[in-house]
Amino acid sequence: MSTRIRYVSLGLLAVVGLYTGGWAYFSPTGWYANFPGLGLSWLPQLGPYNEHLVKDTGAMFLALALLTIVALREVRNTRLVQTTGAVWLVFNVLHFSYHVQHLDMYGTRDQVLNVVFLAALVLLSAVLLVPVSPGRRGDTK
């Protein structure tokens, strides 16, 4: 793997953490009613609104974003990048596992989008566990 792949994976995970976390923490009712955005709404089907749970979720995503931004700044630090990937992977595998067991509450489009996006987050996390190839360490473009 190249450092470029690390940059992309970490960058996308940081965006997910900032987007989800910032929205959930600073506008909990808006996030609950409208997540993931773009005219879709995936949370009300899962149960009643709980401000404490939503704000905790936002805080967790913001913490993940901070860790990811630190790793992004130290992209050649294999231990830090792999730890960041492992932390995201634990969350994303458990998150994915829950949602694939509860797809029946969504229409077909939302079922497909849930699986595609959550699986992509699992893959982005897992790729960070792969060390940089010795001949590719200088590849940062």
TrEMBL record:
> Membrane-spanning residues where?
7-26, 57-73, 112-132
Report the domain of life of the source organism.
Bacteria
The UniProt keyword set, sorted, is: Membrane, Transmembrane, Transmembrane helix
Protein name as catalogued: Uncharacterized protein
